[in-house]
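*** Protein under study ***
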Amino acid sequence: MEQQATMSASRPRVVVKHPALAMASMLIGAFVGMFSETSLNIALPKLMVSLSISTATVQWLVTGYMLVIGIVLPLNSLITKWFTTRQVVIFGLLDFLVGAVIAALAPSFPILLFGRMIQGIATGLILPLMFTVAMQVFAPAKLGAAMGACAMVIMFAPAIGPTLTGLILAKLSWHWIFWAFVPFLLIALVFALTSLENVGNISKPKIDVLSILTSVVGFASIVTAVSFASSKGWGSPLVLGLLLFGIIVLVVYAYRQVHIAEPILNLKIFANPAFRAGALMVMLDFGIILSAMYILPMYMQKGLLLPVAMTGIIMLPGGIVNALVSAVSGNLFDNFGAKWLTRLGFLIALIGAIMLLTTSTHTAVAFVIADHVVLMIGCPLAMSPAQTHALSALKGPASGDGSTIMNTLQQIIGAISTALATSLLGIGEAASHASAQGAFTAGVHMAVYLPVVLSVVALLIAFTTRSFKK
């Protein structure tokens, strides 16, 4: 029995010639997708001036992108049953190329937003596939390290995005942010064409149109409502109506997925306590990092009045730390499990969020760097263990559904947390009677309560879940 267990741990579910090369196109594609998700954060003040738009409008470049990802992600499980892994990834990479070129050439905000939303389709296709394929082509004994590499892509891209964007904007226009995606996407295409094999089963199940419609309408309504709240207020009939409508539609969607024979998304896996706890922690972790990384660059530029290039340089140490912690957290999971890594990670993230609450218009740059580093230790330390804990509790096709569900929740909470941060920032800024610089900093403090609350909730889940094996 012991020998059989050892052999099972050393065998992947699907054997491919070169697992690392098979993953390369998706890792690069996911990196570009996540880089695109946060790369504009540091450019938002400049875009507001260049395109003559408000904070509430410019945030759509972030939330609109994540909205499309959130719409596409729940359909991923169905798509991969109709098309091969190669077909989906190659289409996604070509789609991203088209969106990047449209955005790079955009003369106005609507066209820029259109290009961003096309890119969102690609990210929604590639992101869950990366985790699903990793679960299939790597042996269980190596799964922690493999998932750590995937998590490093997810966490490193948002962390390094502001630095690279700041360096680009120091010498070039914002259009070059999108031109920078092109060479990476071309390299990913080469790997996809030469090394990617199909790892899924093409069963071509019946397409349930009602499930697709309720999924798209429900998620879109909720994210749109929260986004409109930043400009129209939470008491707006439009905001409240969209929220209520979106919730009702999603309840219908969830009920249908649980009761039909061939659901688009197998929501029954939430009955698994390990998956449920891990998915919630991943979702909250993503909300913490995206809301904090949305707030921090704007605070440095409009609260501390630092130039955009300096902002990017200040965020570089945190980006490097993020990469290092993401790289080792998978191996730490293999040795210690998720229990104490998630608890320690969320505790450190909470400290980082509280540090951001203490900033002012005169805060030293060294303190801002330290705050960013603390956040970039805590969030990735918890991310990979929570994700691996959740997905390793699922078997067979359920692992694909689990990956899709977690990535969908990440993007939806990311879009909502960005919109909420914008709304809270506006409320705090409007309530302040200080100068423009001081009022914006007051708004930042109000917005920072969001990652603080998310950190506390995640920490409570990490301490109360009983599904940890170690």
In short: The domain at 12-205+262-464 is CATH 1.20.1250.20 (Growth Hormone; Chain: A;). The mean pLDDT is 82. The chain is about 80% helix and 0% strand. The radius of gyration is 21 Å.
